[in-house]
Structure formats: structure tokens, C-alpha cells
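Obj.: predict assembly geometry.
Materials: sequence records (below).
Method: joint structure prediction, all chains together.
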Amino acid sequence: KAGVTQTPRYLIKTRGQQVTLSCSPISGHRSVSWYQQTPGQGLQFLFEYFSETQRNKGNFPGRFSGRQFSNSRSEMNVSTLELGDSALYLCASRPPPARTEGEQYFGPGTRLTVT
Amino acid sequence: AQSVTQLGSHVSVSEGALVLLRCNYSSSVPPYLFWYVQYPNQGLQLLLKYTSAATLVKGINGFEAEFKKSETSFHLTKPSAHMSDAAEYFCAVLGSSNTGKLIFGQGTTLQVKP
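Observations (raw C-alpha cells):
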């Protein structure tokens, strides 16, 4: 089975721009979560989508948004980029909960640099 | 609210020595606990998980962890370190049941010296 894929892998944007990151989960996984990883704050949960609905949201400003499509692919969008948004953005997909509570499979991430 | 604390941001061991990475958790309910590993320029890979079935959990690459409720700990160990174990290790707790919200510790970088 193919793993979680994220595109693009690297991205450079300017302050004030917006960016869209894409994530394709493992086939059969319907839950997708997004995390931000920075040296200072570590790994922080952004949001989770399941069957095209946001189920959980972390403590991030409204500039961070996401969506999920009927094929379970997910996108996250960051508007009005700030320097502090520079981070590795990780996507993870989760199999059905029976016997696999909490297990997540991570993609390689998108490295976003804001200049 | 659930949280995890990893003691020691950097751990250095010699090849062949015991690896011990410490994690303490705080949870008001029986926790689901995880250890993940991250190699440079890669995503996170699940090493092992605790879901109350057994207190000693065996994972991939020879790692294991023991859940100790009395100490609220879930330390990761490996009897003999290999150079390929050099990576960053994260302990995590599930934020709530049947969700994808993981709460991570700050991470521990493991250095393995030849």
C-alpha cells in the first residue's frame, strides 16, 4: 500500500501571501489530521477531518483552515502568511478505529519557509 | 487535560549500550500512549503503542516500553543501540478517544556514538 503523500515537499512564500498544502491519505483511511512542527513549539495539532467534516481543531488562528474531499484527500490553507508560520507541516491518516485506536501514519511533510 | 513530558532533550549513548528515553504523562482517564521516531527530513513513524492490553509493549526495531501507572511513566528502551537508531523520538498521548488528536512531548534527540 502506498503511504501518505504530501505535496509540495518544499515551498517558499512571502509574508502576506497565502498557501495551500495537499495530503493524500493511505487508501481506505478516512481520517486525516494536520500538525505543525517548529523548533520552538514542537509538534502541534492543527485539525482533523473525517468524511469531509472537521472533527477537531487545535489552538490556531482562523488563518489556518482545511478541507477534505470525498476521496479523503485533504488540503490545508494558510492565509496572510507570517514569518512564524515557517514550519514543517505534517499530515497523518488514521485507519478505522477498531484495534487501531490512535494509530496514525504520517507523510513526509511540507517544509514551508516564509520570507 | 492530557499531556506528556519527555525528560532530556538530548541523549547520547555508545553503540551497543542501553537506550533509555523517558516519558511521563498526565491524563485524567486511562491513556493511549505512543512512541514515534523521526529521521532527518522525514515524517514520523510509529514505534509502538500502549492501549491497556499489556503493560510491556514491544515495538519495531527492538524497542519496547513499559507502562507504569504508579509512576505515570512510559519510558522507551532498547537493550543495544545501533548507529541507525540516531533520530528524534517523540512520546505522545491521544487527546481523546476515537480522534486523531495526538498531544506530543517536546522530543528527545538520540545520538549514538561509535
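Conclusions so far: The CA atoms of residues 11 and 110 of chain B lie 5 Å apart.
To do: check interface contacts against the pulldown list.
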